[in-house]
Amino acid sequence: MTQITKNEIVEFIEPNIQQFHKRRLDKLTALKLKEILSRKNPYLFRAKNQNTAQDLVKTILDAHLSSQEEGIFGSFLEELAIFICEKVYGGRKSSSGGIDLEFSKNSINYIISIKSGPNWGNSRQIEKMKDDFKRAKRILGTNVTSQKVIAINGCCYGKDDNPDKGDYLKLCGQRFWEFISGNENLYTDIIEPLGYRAKEKNENFSEEYAKVINKFTHEFASEYCGKDGSILWKKLVKFNSGKSSTT
Question: For the residues of 101-156, what is the DSSP string, one character each?
Answer without folding.
Answer: EEEEETTEEEEEEEESSS----HHHHHHHHHHHHHHHHHHHHH-TTSEEEEEEEES
